[in-house]
Write a structure and sequence with these properties.
Structural class: alpha/beta
CATH architecture of the largest domain: 3-Layer(bba) Sandwich
Shape: globular
Bound molecules: flavin-adenine dinucleotide
Largest sheet: 7 strands, mixed
Number of helices: 7
Radius of gyration: 22 Å
Strand content: 15-25%
Helix content: 10-25%
CATH class of the largest domain: Alpha Beta
Oligomer: single chain
Order of helices and strands: EHEHEEEEEEHEEHHEHEEEEEEEEH
């Protein structure tokens, strides 16, 4: 085994919105790219998880992309260009951003394990090994699709897939598709797939459509609820559980087309379809699990950051600092799992970690 470990003050793991925001602030605080801080990113190109989003997700159908600190998206894409694919536009923006601020992003590199080595943290990757004084983890959720277990799952003869694997509706033509989930992605896929084939829509609870506009205050209240959970060491919970689904024109049109007939969850998967507790069965060819993602944190397992209930107790100004190990910050996690949250969290984590490690060399003008 190669025991040489490259010494670095702060290692940022993940080069999406959260990681780039953290890197920007580390640079502004005077850390030098390379020895001072380095971003490791598993993705082949700039863009974080946006580069993997399905082609029909456009700048019109995403919720909203918040600008990274110090450079607006409008510098790369005219705000009127709403039909551009998110998987092209956002990576172009992130690439320009990395270049503008000379961010030291090393890719593709996957962090495999982070271990406590007393004064330092050892980070094993699929390339070199690093020895860091602190870590800002920004690995997002895209690599951790979540699929609930239902009996019979392994016996199903059709195809099972997750939002993560979705490309375009045409691939479902002629198949009967069960779409599971009550989030925005589930509804977008239901909208698209129901135009080309027969669909069934299943959710655990009746979905909560929100008629009123989602105001900035609603956003703050939703974030505060998730922040409160992680400060208590609880698992953050899904985005929809705090925001609800907007009752927008697309949803109204789906209702008019008769595709919003939500069914309760089945209790079992059979080789050819789904079975409910009352014995009713439906044949389906494909089960599309739009059941969300969890945070991709497996590489941090050796640090034993989790509480008994599986949550991670967070502290610090924006709840980015792990209470059990203050050298570790999680950004894009819990209350900061949105582009706006990731942005702010990156700044807060950079400043707190630099202070904690006694590395501060200059004031971040963004403070
Ligand atoms: C379908 C979908 C649509 C969304 N739409 C919106 C929206 O419109 N507005 C909004 O605010 N939010 C949206 N979100 C949430 C959004 O993804 C986040 O807010 C934000 O983009 C996440 O940024 P991030 O930096 O935390 O993660 P990511 O963009 O996922 O970046 C994480 C990076 O870390 C890398 N990585 C992962 N594991 C490792 C590892 N072990 N080692 C090294 N690198 C690693 C990944 O390759 C990736 O490049 C959406 C999410 C989904 C799933």
């Amino acid at each position: 085994m190669n025991s040489l470990a490259y010494k670095i003050d702060i290692l940022v793991i993940g080069g999406g919105q959260a990681g780039l925001s953290a890197a920007y602030h580390l640079g502004r605080l005077g850390l030098k790219g390379g020895k001072g801080y380095l971003v490791l990113d598993k993705s082949p190109q700039p863009g974080g998880a946006w580069q993997f989003r399905w082609p029909t997700l456009t700048m019109r159908t995403i919720n909203r992309l918040h600008d990274l600190p110090g450079m607006g998206f409008a510098e790369v894409l005219d705000p009127g260009q709403t039909e551009v694919r998110a998987a092209e536009a956002v990576p172009a923006y992130f690439r320009a951003y990395e270049e503008r601020f000379h961010l030291p992003v090393y890719r593709p590199v996957t962090a495999r394990l982070v271990c406590d080595r007393g004064e330092r943290l050892r980070v094993e990757t699929d390339r070199e090994t690093f020895s860091a004084r602190g870590i800002i983890n920004a690995t997002g959720t895209w690599d951790a699709p979540q699929i609930p277990y239902y009996p019979g799952r392994e016996l199903f003869l059709g195809r099972q897939m997750h939002t993560h694997d979705y490309h375009r509706p045409e691939e479902f033509a002629g198949r009967r598709v069960a779409i599971v989930g009550a989030g925005i992605s589930a509804l977008q896929m239901l909208d698209e797939i129901s135009r080309v084939t027969d669909t069934i829509w299943l959710t655990r609870r009746p979905p909560e459509f929100r008629d009123a506009e989602f105001t900035a205050e609603d956003g703050r209240a939703a974030v505060a609820r998730v922040e409160d959970r992680v400060r208590q060491g609880l698992i953050p919970g899904s985005v929809v559980s705090v925001t609800g689904i907007p009752y927008n024109p697309a949803i109204r049109a789906m209702q008019a087309r008769g595709v919003l007939n939500r069914q309760p969850m089945f209790s079992e998967i059979t080789p050819t379809g789904l079975r409910w507790p009352d014995g009713r069965e439906e044949a389906v060819d494909i089960i599309l699990w739009a059941t969300g993602f969890r945070s991709a944190l497996d590489h941090l397992a050796p640090l034993q950051l989790r509480e008994e209930n599986g949550g991670i107790r967070m502290t610090g100004r924006l709840a980015t600092q792990v209470a059990r190990d203050p050298r570790v910050h999680l950004v894009g996690y819990g209350p900061s799992a949105s582009t706006i949250g990731a942005n702010r969290a990156g700044g807060a984590a950079a400043r707190e970690l630099v202070d904690h490690l006694g590395l501060a060399t200059q004031e971040d003008p963004q403070t």
